[in-house]
Amino acid sequence: MKAHSAAWLAAVALAAGVARANRPDFREQIVVPGGRFGLGTDHIEFPLDAEGPARPVTVKPFVLDKYEVSIDRFAEFVNATGYITEAERFGWSFVHEKALDEAVLQTITQAVQSVPWWLPVDNASWSHPEGAASDASGRGSHPAVHLSHADADAFCAWAMPGGRLPTEVEWERAARGGKEGRMYAWGNKLKPRNKHRANIWQGQFPLKNTARDGFKWAAPVDAFGPQNQWGFHGVAGNAWEWTATEWCDPARPAPDCRGKQAPADAGDVEWVKKGGSFLCHKSYCFRYRVAARTKNTANSGAYNLGARCARDATPEEQRLVESGSAVQVGAPEVGNAVPPSTEGVTDGAKVGYRPGQHAAAGADEL
Ligand SMILES: [Ca+2]
């Protein structure tokens, strides 16, 4: 495994310091009011995803990152803690074939039959998104990807006191921005006034991406501006985002297949992810709708899989949102000195590439 160089990490840390003085550093958060709202949809596109029917749920006030976790933020975390992600432990991660150059493609001998565009690439990780020959220089404002569920959890626990992943209910509450029954975070029209509102795939998936929205692959986490009236960026498209809600097989008899919380992280647990990604096209992955949901196994990493962090609202913050409007708050103190947990982190050396295991996960990637 080739780790990111200390020099590069130092450069990133320095760049992050400069960035803080001059532009948003993507650590801003938004306090979301509690209340009752409609989770899911009656306009079901993927019945097996258990998107619907819509049903009322109640949520307490909480705080959620305004942006997806950026590469610069994740670099700060790694620099401070020495954390090694699961993709780095495994020594590989999934990358879309069209994002790879010929030299890398020549080295790949395995693929997943059901999703042949996903290729296992040696040394692909948050700091080397397309493999060892790539690095994240100049992409610090892009979402950190190739994160496993445990990696995302560890980052959030470090990034702020009480930091954690949002539940699916919290995530959807935030993405709806206080509006009921809308298809997208911003409304019902994909391109209001013919303006792209999210980084998704245009063209023909998986062969041709015309990038009409300006981005073929990941975009800066603020590239499309606020996507709803509460000010959240990137809740639709760009990177998929892990949640703290365990996936429950809708075919399995259960009183409620949504909202179940897993007791502990583990490699084979499946978790709900939300938001769709830059690889989503309506023909294949119409999952940038706010009610859409799918899953990954906890130890899966991929080129389009990231996170944003949540925490409980303080009593003072709860009072701020009593009127029902969301309120932006300053960035949390970085690094609360909680050592990252390695509990539940799979030992990649023992697991390696298991096509059978990842075929199932890969099929749900997009
Ligand atoms: Ca795009």
TrEMBL record:
Residues 331-366 are annotated as: Disordered. Residues 1-21 form the signal peptide. One of its GO terms (cellular component) is endoplasmic reticulum. InterPro entries: CTDL_fold, Sulfatase_Mod_Factor_Kinase, SUMF_dom, SUMF_sf. Pfam families: FGE-sulfatase. The keyword Hydrolase does not apply. GO terms for molecular function: formylglycine-generating oxidase activity. It comes from the Eukaryota. SUPFAM superfamilies: C-type lectin-like. This is Sulfatase-modifying factor enzyme-like domain-containing protein. Keywords: Signal. Residues 27-311 form the Sulfatase-modifying factor enzyme-like domain. The keyword Thylakoid does not apply.
